[in-house]
Structure formats: structure tokens, C-alpha cells
Amino acid sequence: MDLDLRKLRYFATVAEHRHFGRAAERLFIAQPVLSRQIKSFEQELGCKLLIRTTRSVELTAAGQQLYEEAQQILPSIAAAVRRVHDADQGVQRLAIAFSPGLYVADAIREFTSRHADVEIDLIPTRWWEPDRPLRDGRAQIAYLRRQFDESGLHIVPIGQDPRFACMPAAHPLAARQELSMADLDGERMLDVPNRRTSSIEEKFELIASGHGIALVPLSVARSYSRPDLAHLPVTDAPGIETCLAVATDRHDRVLRGFLETATAILRRG
Hints:
This protein has 3 domains: 5-71, Orthogonal Bundle (Arc Repressor Mutant, subunit A); 92-159 and 240-268, Periplasmic binding protein-like II (D-Maltodextrin-Binding Protein, domain 2, 3-Layer(aba) Sandwich), CATH 3.40.190.10; 163-233, Periplasmic binding protein-like II (D-Maltodextrin-Binding Protein, domain 2), CATH 3.40.190.10. The protein is built from 9 helices and 10 strands. It has helices at residues 5-17, 20-27, 31-45, 61-89, 105-114, 132-135, 200-208, 218-223, 253-268, and strands at 50-52, 57-59, 92-98, 118-124, 141-145, 153-161, 163-168, 214-217, 229-233, 240-247. The radius of gyration is 22 Å and the shape is flat. The termini are far apart. Pfam families: HTH_1 (PF00126), LysR_substrate (PF03466). This is LysR family transcriptional regulator. Keywords: DNA-binding, Transcription, Transcription regulation.
């Protein structure tokens, strides 16, 4: 069967909002129309995607899988359509992804001074899938922190990002100048194995409200400074390597030029 991309987008919006009314408003269509389209989509696929109640919408196992697939398919299609339009209009474009707290502006300024005709797009990554924009075609190059899936990618090491302990400003340890990992024994840690938050901002809200401590890269600590949080260096915590990543099958001139510029600029920084 051919996948109906319009219905896939409708389904993904319902799955995101877990509510037909809010999804319909987002899509600018009537709720009964959206409901019919989703039912038709389920019939075409031959499986139930959503469990509907009077108050909410939940995903079935098949629906959860399709939602995860849609998060890759839809951005990839949108990026492909944009590239087609760029080719038609003779536009050169470079899409750069970056992890929270990592600054790529100096490299962009240097590159743009030599290539003013190249359009630049910037794409922030999510911390639990930093390589996703490279995988789905939205970005051609990314400035990231390790670790992530490096298969099919060319990696250029840049430097080290020290790790700091982030805690409420009123925490007893916050008065210290520095910490060791032993100082954190017995503390509730809000790191990936224990609790997956959807954003850096959410993690910092949890920390500020007393729900734990997190080890965060120094670049993130500097970017999200706030008076109710303290950031202390952890002397024996291993740093996180920063790097530039590009797909191994990408060799175009604009990308090579930016990679060379960014490597030199970011290593100096």
C-alpha cells in the first residue's frame, strides 16, 4: 500500500497532543473531519492506532511505533521538498544542527564572510537523539557532544566539555568551590538512566524545585544560568568530547568549506 502522508501528518498531530480537539485546531480543520481521516487511516493500515476515551487519546503499541516512525519520516520529507525548491531557485543552503549550549556562531560568521551567497539554517537537537537531524536529512552537519550513534558519520573531534554538578542554590553543597564524585554519593541524580526529561529547561525546573542534582556540561550550565541554581565543577568527572559530525556520503563543496572553517574556529574557542 502507499502511505498517505497527509493522514500520517494528521495522526502525528493527534499523537503529539493526545487530543482530537487540540489537534484539529493545530491543523485548521474541523474535529469530525479529523476523526474520519484517522479512522480511514487505521482501516488502510489494518490496525488500531489510538484508544479514544471521552477525555483523552492514548496510543496503542502500533500507534506508538508509527508515531516514532512519523517523527523521522515527516521531517525527512519536508527537508527533501525544501531541497527540491532550492534546486529549482538556484539557492545554496547549509543546515547546521547543534546541541544545547554549544555555540557555532563564530564559525558561521567566518564562513559567511567568504560565502555570503549560502543560506544558513540552524536546527537545535534534542539531548537524547542528537544525531537525528543528520539521519532524517534536516541537517548536513552537526556540532554535538558524544555519545551518540556514529554509524555512517564522519566525526571530527573538537574539544572537551567539563561536567558540572547543577543543584538548587540552597543545597548544602552549593557553598563549596568544587566537588568530587564521592561528594555526590547518596544524592538523587537526574541523569539519563534515572529520568528522561524532554528538555534541558524541564530538567533545570526539576532541579530548582528540589527533585535532584544533575551532571551537566559546562557549556549548558553557562547557557542556562539562573539565580536559583548553582553549578559546581566536579573534579574527577570525565569531560564530554565535542565534535563535528557529517554523513560519510556527503562531499559537496559548501559542506566541505564549512567543515574546514568550523574545525579551525571551534578548536580555537
